[in-house]
């Protein structure tokens, strides 16, 4: 059983967290998912409270670490020394991913120095100003690190995790109920080709 940690903070983007958590929660025999933060609970951008399962320092014990997003929450998190210093991540031993502005955290930790990444399209200029090599792509993979840009690209990020840990069949099982009726082939082709393209474009294989 793999350990998956979702990193949360105040003013996180609701859809980014809840869709990620929902997709990961669709299977209980693949991984154990823990919500990690600096407090007992964190409030979303829309005011919803989510209880955490452990402190953010537990990221070092996870097989997979996923960073959520938030256009207000991320700037504050980057300035929080206790938050950033607790993120002891090891891309040689862990799968690490982010959705939208979560890539700012990975960039500032130095995990993507000299490497490509993606983020929410509206945050591209800001991240480029910080030195990030931002691509106009929904998913960018650099070895064991994947960044996804745009809220709905969570399906690519979680799909990447499922395929890395298991296979495409496990991914399909997880995402099956997410796909609109009558469009399975359309979405399956989109998801599979996006992940394959990102993997083939990786410069850190």
Overall outline? globular
Q: List the domain count as a whole number.
A: 1
Q: What is the number of helical segments per DSSP (H or I, 4+ residues)? A: 8
The CATH architecture category equals 3-Layer(aba) Sandwich
Tell me the CATH topology: Rossmann fold
Structure, explained:
This is Thiamine biosynthesis protein ThiJ. InterPro entries: Class_I_gatase-like (IPR029062), DJ-1/PfpI (IPR002818), INH-QAR (IPR052158). It holds the Pfam family DJ-1_PfpI. This protein is of the alpha/beta class and 205 residues long. The chain has one domain: Class I glutamine amidotransferase (GATase) domain (Rossmann fold, 3-Layer(aba) Sandwich), CATH 3.40.50. The chain is built from eight helices and eleven strands. The strands form three sheets. Strands 5-2-1-6-7-11-10 form a seven-stranded mixed sheet, with helices on both faces. It has a two-stranded antiparallel sheet with strand order 3-4. Helix 5 links the parallel strand 8 and strand 9. The model has no long low-confidence stretch (mean pLDDT 94).
In short:
The chain is an alpha/beta fold. The protein has helices spanning about 15-25, 75-80, 80-85, 100-110, 125-130, 155-165, 170-175, 185-200; strands at about 1-5, 30-35, 40-45, 50, 55, 65, 95-100, 115, 135, 140, 145-150.
């Amino acid at each position: 059983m793999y350990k998956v940690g979702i990193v949360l903070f105040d003013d996180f983007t609701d859809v980014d967290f809840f869709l990620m958590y929902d997709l990961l929660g669709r299977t209980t025999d693949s991984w154990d998912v823990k919500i990690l933060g600096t407090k007992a609970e964190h409030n979303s951008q829309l005011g919803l409270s989510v209880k955490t399962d452990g402190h953010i320092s537990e990221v070092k014990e996870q097989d997979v670490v996923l960073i959520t997003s938030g256009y207000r929450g991320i700037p504050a998190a980057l300035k929080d020394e206790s938050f950033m210093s607790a993120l002891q991540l090891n891309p040689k031993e862990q799968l690490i991913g982010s959705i939208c502005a979560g890539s700012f955290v990975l960039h500032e930790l130095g995990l993507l120095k000299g490497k490509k990444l993606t983020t929410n399209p509206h945050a591209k200029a800001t991240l480029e100003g910080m030195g990030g090599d931002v691509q106009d792509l929904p998913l960018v993979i650099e070895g064991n690190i994947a960044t996804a840009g745009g809220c709905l690209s969570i399906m690519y990020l979680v799909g990447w995790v499922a395929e890395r840990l298991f296979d495409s069949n496990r991914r399909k099982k997880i995402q099956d109920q997410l796909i609109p009726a009558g469009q399975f082939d359309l979405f399956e082709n989109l998801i599979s080709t996006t992940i394959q393209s990102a993997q083939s474009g990786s410069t850190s294989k």
